[in-house]
Specification:
- With 82 residues, this protein is mainly α.
- The chain is 96% helix and 0% strand.
- The chain contains one helix and no strands.
- The chain is rod-shaped and about 115 Å long.
- The relative contact order is 0.04.
Length: 82
């Protein structure tokens, strides 16, 4: 192979390598963008779950208070009948 042929082959390999690198970078950027979007969705879901948890804790505390009151009333009624 002549030096011109070797140079042309080297340039072709270099061109292919650059194209492959650009494709890899574009794919990585797509992956990073997808991960960022998924991360944002997960953060939003976590925030929703935290709000729901706080609401459920409040409801549970209210139910506990009401049950304690009802139990106290039943105990008062039972102790008055004895």
């Amino acid at each position: 192979m002549t030096s011109d042929g070797l140079l042309a082959a080297a340039v072709a390999k270099l061109t292919d390598a650059v194209a492959a690198a650009e494709t890899a970078v574009a794919a990585r950027d797509d992956d990073v963008g997808g991960v960022a979007a998924e991360s944002a969705e997960l953060r939003a879901a976590l925030d929703d779950l935290r709000r729901e948890h706080a609401g459920l804790k409040s409801v549970a505390a209210d139910v506990t208070r009401r049950l304690d009151g009802a139990i106290g009333q039943v105990e008062a009624i039972l102790s008055g009948r004895k």
